[in-house]
Amino acid sequence: MKFGFCSKPAKEGGTAEWVYSSGWSAKDGALFIPRGIWHGYYNFTSDIAIVLYWLTNKYNPADEERKTVEDMGFDWYRRAK
To answer: What is the pTM for the complete model shown?
Structure first.
């Protein structure tokens, strides 16, 4: 899995931080996503992946905003070496 985090889109001067995780690295613990940070994930394998969110507040649709990867302006996809 590839997880991406940023505080604002690239066109607004934002930069992305990438974290790679697998069944092997999951033992290192959970990823913490601070409030107000854009985040997403991409499963670049053919294996089934499960992502669980532990929420600090009850879901509120008015507090939710979604953007596409293209809206954020970062190179998300994994390239073959």
So the answer is: 0.71
